[in-house]
Amino acid sequence: MLGDVRLRGQTGVPAERRGSYPFIDFRPLNNTTHSGEIGTKKKVKRLLSFQRYFHASRLLRGIVPQAPLHLLDEDYLGQARHMLSKVGMWDFDIFLFDRLTNGNSLVTLLCHLFSTHGLIHHFKLDMVTLHRFLVMVQEDYHSQNPYHNAVHAADVTQAMHCYLKEPKLASFLTPLDIMLGLLAAAAHDVDHPGVNQPFLIKTNHHLANLYQNMSVLENHHWRSTIGMLRESRLLAHLPKEMTQDIEQQLGSLILATDINRQNEFLARLRTHLHNKDLRLEDGRDRHFMLQIALKCADICNPCRVWEMSKQWSERVCEEFYRQGDLEQKFELEISPLCNQQKDSIPSIQIGFMTYIVEPLFREWARFTGNSALSENMLSHLAHNKAQWKSLLPKPHRGGSGGGPDLAGQGAEKEEQTGTRGDTP
């Protein structure tokens, strides 16, 4: 194990080294020759730690992985540039954009957004250093994860860009607010292992112990981001007080994405909207709405057009099922929503939409004054929910039968007990 991999800088906020998260290798699940060799929790912990430790040790020895040079056809680059001209459109296809940029959607998107928002000029950022930092972030996402990967981060960042343009919010935002929103969106799931918090707790993972079983993944994403900011020295030229504030606000934003805090934030938003006491001239209220915007961006997949929404749904369920297979392999209790034999994709998605997505996006629509974007998202949400209902197994469809109730069981359990810890 790596032990406590935090680095304490001059600001006093603990940060984690790059590559501090043990890589989780699912290949043994398909390797019958070793089926009898891995059976204890102790061996599970070794599996979770070795490969990621090897990556970290290479970094500590100064051996930085060199990304291969990819020469893209000019037609692809032209199409990518054309797509960036429409990056504020809700039907932006992040999967196509990732293909056109040869898997560099997050870096390309962030460089473009930092430029168009004037952040490079305002904060006097060095473009080479910014690019280096963004490459570090992109590389610390696990490409083998079906869902929690750099494409998801790019998708959330594009959604955040759309939300930052909402008229009710945009006129109050400062350059710092915009930079914080984009950075938090880009790094909110960095180094995600593809399993949830309960899995880390029941395998006695060192990060679960480090963060005392509280917002384990979100704390890790935040501290890893701070580590990369310091390693890249992207903000080293800014005053110390400002960098301290940026690090703390990034933490507050990323920690807000913990799905177990959903009811907390939803209740606060409803109260503000009921009392009509949001004052966006006040930095605290603006920060709260940035938290809400990031939460919406993180779970906005059901509000995308069906073709993209369906892809995301299949990806996240594949990640759930992989965890369930891993738990079954090691004779651990299978987590909610992770049993492929019992939890169908339609039922998971309908429950998620009903209990998590719809309540939040209804309140977001109230905040925006039912903006065109909000109405568009709610329209897609209703359509996608109907599509998933039509795909439910036949015994669970229709009328007042068991369909909706069955579909809600997983999300209800998640909302009440916080056992899943991820977002479909």
UniProtKB/TrEMBL annotation:
Protein EC: 3.1.4.-
Compositional bias per record (Basic and acidic residues), positions renumbered to this chain: 411-424
Pfam families per record: PDEase_I
Domain PDEase: 72-395
Note on how the cofactor is bound: Binds 2 divalent metal cations per subunit. Site 1 may preferentially bind zinc ions, while site 2 has a preference for magnesium and/or manganese ions.
Cofactor(s) demanded: a divalent metal cation
Keywords: Hydrolase, Metal-binding
Keyword Metal-binding attached: yes
SMART domains in the record: HDc
Disordered as annotated region, ranges: 391-424
KW Metal-binding (keyword) present: yes
Entries under CDD domains matching the protein: HDc
Group of enzyme by EC: hydrolase
SUPFAM superfamilies per UniProt: HD-domain/PDEase-like
Listed InterPro entries: HD/PDEase_dom (IPR003607), PDEase (IPR023088), PDEase_catalytic_dom (IPR002073), PDEase_catalytic_dom_sf (IPR036971), PDEase_CS (IPR023174)
Coiled-coil residues: none
Assigned protein family: Belongs to the cyclic nucleotide phosphodiesterase family.
Record's protein name: Phosphodiesterase
Source species taxonomy: Eukaryota, Metazoa, Chordata, Craniata, Vertebrata
The gene coding this protein: PDE7B
